[in-house]
């Protein structure tokens, strides 16, 4: 079987998450990201640097995934 035949007979790629859940995942991710951002803002100045970096990374990840799910749920496929 040639590569072209394999490509023509292959199954389409599907999303691991059902598209109906995109708005819910966007809401949950953005809410968790804003909560983590708020926790980062109210941390005291003498908090360990590792704790500040951990909180900011968690906020960035949740806000990033929330933005992606929001874009996908409104039809902008990135």
Automatic annotation (TrEMBL):
Principal location listed in the UniProt entry: membrane
InterPro entries per the UniProt record, alphabetical: TMEM258/Ost5
Organism the protein comes from: Phycomyces blakesleeanus
Sorted UniProt keywords: Membrane, Transmembrane, Transmembrane helix
Family to which this protein belongs: Belongs to the OST5 family.
Compartments, record wording: Membrane
Membrane topology note: Multi-pass membrane protein
SUBUNIT field: Component of the oligosaccharyltransferase (OST) complex.
Membrane spanning stretches: 20-42, 54-77
Name the UniProt record assigns to this protein: Dolichyl-diphosphooligosaccharide-protein glycosyltransferase subunit OST5
Pfam families: Ost5 (PF05251)
Function statement: Subunit of the oligosaccharyl transferase (OST) complex that catalyzes the initial transfer of a defined glycan (Glc(3)Man(9)GlcNAc(2) in eukaryotes) from the lipid carrier dolichol-pyrophosphate to an asparagine residue within an Asn-X-Ser/Thr consensus motif in nascent polypeptide chains, the first step in protein N-glycosylation. N-glycosylation occurs cotranslationally and the complex associates with the Sec61 complex at the channel-forming translocon complex that mediates protein translocation across the endoplasmic reticulum (ER). All subunits are required for a maximal enzyme activity.
